Amino acid sequence: MAPKKAAPSISVRPNALSDEKCIITGDIDGFKRKDAEQILINAGATIEKSLNKKVTLVVLGADAGPQKLDKIEKLGIETKDWDALIVEIKGEGGAAPVDDDDDDDDDEDDADEEMNEPEDSKPKKKAAPKEKAAPKPKANTKAKADLAPAAKPAASSSSGNFLSGKHVIITGIIAGHDRKDAQAILEKEGAIFEKSLNKKVEIVILGQNSGPDKLAKIKDLGAETIEWKTVAEKLGLELSPEKKVANVEAGDAPDSIDGKTLLVTGEIDGFTRSAAQKILEGAGAKFAKTLNKSVELVVLGANAGPDKLNKIADQGIPTVEWIDLIEKLGIDAEAGEPPKKKAKRD
Questions:
Q1: What is the rounded distance in angstroms from the CA atom of residue 161 to the CA atom of residue 47?
Q2: What is the value of pTM for the model shown?
Q3: What is the Cα–Cα distance from 295 to 290, expressed in whole angstroms?
Q4: Contact 37, 47 (CB under 8 A)
Q5: Are 201 and 194 in contact (CB under 8 A)?
Q6: Please, which residues have CB within 8 angstroms of residue 88's CB and are 6 or more apart in sequence?
Q7: Residues 71, 270: contact at Cβ < 8 Å?
Q8: Mean per-residue pLDDT for 170-198?
Q9: At CA 201, angle to CA 196 and CA 206, rounded to 5?
Q10: pLDDT tens digits, one per residue of 289-327
């Protein structure tokens, strides 16, 4: 058996979070959820298993689901970005985080998933309480945007100077590049990349098929937007042709998926791909590893890759939206909490 990779670690002050009951939402770059939770436990925090009224602090990673953020706002819970919190509680020493390449997505064209599955972690005994830091602004989200925000030109320049020192994030598919490659190009021009869409972001680079939830948040924050093709022209980059994407319209949700072979593609709001599959497996579904002739129904999330959509259209496979399917099946699936069956109506 291959040896397990050592969990990353950050040295923190042992009493820094001694009076906090925490939960993590979103992706923590370089850490599995349980390892990130252990760092908070080392700082004296108690980890709650779900978002509830006991929680005093929500730690935000990248791409936290809008439904979860909305619930956080309604509960009035304090939120802090992971990176900002680590700076606040960090002690001396400690290893830097390492990349977690545990990616179960077979389709390289599909966009990144939104949220890791939470894992149980036993809290350590709390130390004496400390003085609380001043609360930071609560999470603020709205429902999906009616329209994508219009791309606004960044400061005019014939070179990459308009990106120098700017806090930037990319959303959507960048034709001819994966997200990391596109990010590396812009970092060479002086851009500072944020791990998630937050109030620090000054410019959002728009690729193809940006998710409606992400576009809604951009609109709420009032961040400046610019299309990738405009950035590429300013930087003198050769533009890869954008792929034509088939217009795949979702059909009606079936009454049952028991025994059916399914495939999930795109981002499922608040869930990893594997977590979404487990929910549907609980309703009797089976899952194919790739899009092939055995697939009877494709479950569509946001930002499905153009290659996958074109193949779905070519093969004529029925599709359904995730939210329509779980509602039809009576599954109450909230991000970060075990799925529950809704009570049947008479």
A1: 44
A2: 0.35
A3: 9
A4: yes
A5: yes
A6: 16, 80, 133
A7: no
A8: 83
A9: 80
A10: 888 989 999 998 877 777 788 888 888 999 998 888 988
